[in-house]
Here is the input.
Amino acid sequence: MTFFADFVKHRSLGLWSFLLAATPLASTGCIVVDEDGRHDDHHQHDDRDDEDDNAPPPPTDEPRLVAIDTDAVLSSEPGEGVGIFVEYAAGGTWKLWTTCDTNSSKVVCSFDLYASVDTSSELFDIVGTDLEKTDATRLVDEGIAYLHAETGSDIDAMTFTTTEGAIVRLEAYLDGVQEPRYVYWFGDGILHEGAPSNPLDFEPTSP
Here is the structure.
């Protein structure tokens, strides 16, 4: 799958750097297992022609601030569900990783993830894990890390380091569409399934 992207950085809102990405739909669920071995099975069907009166309101574009538990680890079976997973480890190490529902859909998910810190913090040491030739990580600007992942029946990941306890802003795209509903993280001891905004700001519970 060919990837086309262009992005623009704006510094008009406070200390933050914003990115607008144009990239190339995936659907269905995600299985998450926490440290205690509990399973959460999520099956979602994306049909833009259907209307659901019980559907939650769409996420806002105004970034929301959420807590992320330090040292909490997520787990998901590769190929069994669509997911964008966010983890933070003490000392400033962040991990973003992706899965897809390729085992059932026979389709690859194309992810574009941007992680940034405000201009009073630092972001460095970007490393890709389990990436293939169609995947890429890079520093697109000072304080902004980027992951492009063509994820199938595997896991693609990016780690990076920030100033300890820094708030990290995530902007997530799936097949060129903002998809905050597939973002997963642990915050205040709870598994959060779907983000209330895109971008979303993560604040570690401890540095």
Remarks:
- Helices lie at 102-105.
